[in-house]
């Protein structure tokens, strides 16, 4: 019976190709617009570290005071040198890391012809690699002793390793960056979480999207070498009169990110308490003239607070969904017109013994063939639309949106489900047809 | 025409579903089209905001030194670079700065009017530049004077020297001194050292174009300093010479000293800078445009489809009316009026939806309030669209011959 209904459906669709084409196009366009914007939304709103997003936390504390706050009552998004090093040295969490973005010139040793080039990455403390699950190709990160000993060690990324050492195991080799020599202790595999949740403070990573980092050096060493931040430095209007490097370190400008790993609610509670006490101490010592104002956000809360999902993505998703809704209303109307035109046919079928159920089945199947065709058109349009994503979003975001098997399946399923849903009312109307009345008027 | 409304309403009651669907579709389309058009207007206004500089002839080169240089070395190298750049054929002028307009972000500085004030009056973008800055960027000085060469100091990164003089934009001057008396007044950059405003320039776009900065749009100031070390070289070419200068400049810099880093994406003209800065604005405008067009087409097609069905369904009634003396024009106006009534119901709901949708976006995305002109324009557009869409089926209906009345379907 099912096959027969499909046949009937196809025949009926062929009878008014214009109307059918209209419905298929409405569904195709609607579902494609939704899928394209959804694929971008999915890319930017994904959880970059699902297994740890509840455990990694960003400590924040207000060192500027209420009148300098950029956003009402919120502490700055990063820490000063003074606070970050104090919190790090206190070791109140099982793991903690402080870091800032650096851009260093890499001076290739061999091959006299090659020019120096820039590489970006982080000056960090050793827990960085374990906390953020950085995958290693060779070697590993450095340990706390290296941090405390201000060791000349470095971790480099896979593509830098390919550029400098043709991909060979370079652990133990030397690398010259900005005139200083470091011993390579590890080579990371490709690692580029999107969004780059741990470094949202930085300025030129658009919504946490940017090129993968290539170099990592110990925080303590970077400070020794007076390596300036390659990222953002925000003084929030706080007095920045302390001129020079040392003045900057002692000052109230924030430029260092900090993360702590807290595995249990008890640990989180403890750290929260510790942070509050630290701020209270600062108040007692006279550095802060205000009550402790602290935050301890986990990854999910942090992404939300930093508004990682660009408003463009949300707005276009909402508009596309509205668009799809209109297409579906359109489809309801057209299906209604189409089904009701066949009132006479329905009357005959019902008179010959077809139950309402069978009428339902027949028309729903007919509708789902429309949905299927709309879905196929939708996949086609989505594929074309993917090329256009770059027009609308920053290239860093656009390249994240891609068509995969799950999206194709979703497109077709959504198109069919939506069409069948839209067909319920017209089908119900069709099943209400009174056979006697129809036969009589004929 | 008014007389027809009553029979139309009672006829509509017989096919409520279709009428409701068309009204609903019109309403939603109006809501989305109004907001989309408004977004387009906002984005286009944003991206066509003037920068105040001679964009057509400017080139920005990001220069980083490969090794760590002392301040004196970096200063000497930079002076040599600037001399080499200014001597290039086709180069009008060149400077070194910390940033450039529309860069996407950079230094902004809280400003107060007295040293003991703790709440900032302004948050302008800060540009560092020497006496060539105004000429290189092509900015118009409208009051006061330019910097003198003896006022310029080289500064290294993280050095914090309060300059005794500054040049501000008119927008900043008006913000700080609304009575127009800015020239010669002192301001404080969150420090106890005063800085005197010696010049006022017309328009100079800020570095960031984000929402927070747009609240202080065009508020910029120039400090008489040359940033040594890593910096941006800004070159102004003679008209028509930009491409040639682009080729020659990087070569000249490498000839000067090889131990530097100039990335391929570190050499930008203002067409590129503008594109990067306004990428998402441009994209949103295009996306909303496409959505509007497709949406209107689909709504129109839907109205054509449903009305055709009604006409088909009512051939017999039309025939009866014609036989009883209705003219073709009566039939035509019947369907047009019917559509108008449904359309009016739709746009009334739609106008509410449009405003509601906008208010929701205002509270979530820092968007501006929808101006009522857009709602009115949208209403007119959709009513006309409905009338246009219904015209073909209505004409077909008017051609139904009175003979139909006697025929069985």
SS strand fraction of chain A: 5-15%
Poorly predicted runs of chain B are none
> Total strand count of chain A, please?
10
Count of the domains of chain A:
2
Secondary-structure element order of chain A, as H and E?
A: HHEHEEHEHEHEEEHHEHEHHHHHHH
Helix content of chain B: 40-55%
- Helix segment tally of chain B: 12
Largest interface: A-B, 67 and 67 residues
In what range is the share of β-strand residues of chain B?
15-25%
Question: N- to C-terminal separation of chain A?
Answer: 28 Å
The biggest beta sheet of chain B is recorded as: 7 strands, mixed
State the total count of DSSP E strands of chain B. 12
Key descriptive features of the protein:
heterodimer; A: 442 residues; alpha+beta; B: 409 residues; 2 domains; 15% strand; elongated
Architecture overview:
The complex is a heterodimer of chains A (442) and B (409). Chain A is α+β, with helices and mostly antiparallel strands. Chain A folds into 2 domains: 2-47 and 310-441, no CATH class; 63-261, no CATH class. In chain A, 51% of the residues lie in helices and 14% in strands. Chain A is built from 16 helices and 10 strands. In chain A, helix 2 (17-45) packs across helix 13 (356-392), helix 2 packs across helix 15 and helix 12 (343-351) packs across helix 16 (435-441). The longest helix of chain A is centred in the last third of the chain and has 37 residues, at 356-392. The two termini of chain B are 29 Å apart. Chain B is α+β, with helices and mostly antiparallel strands. The mean pLDDT of chain B is 88. Chain B contains 12 helices and 12 strands. Chains A and B meet through helix 2, helix 8 and helix 11 of A and helix 2, strand 11, helix 9 and helix 11 of B.
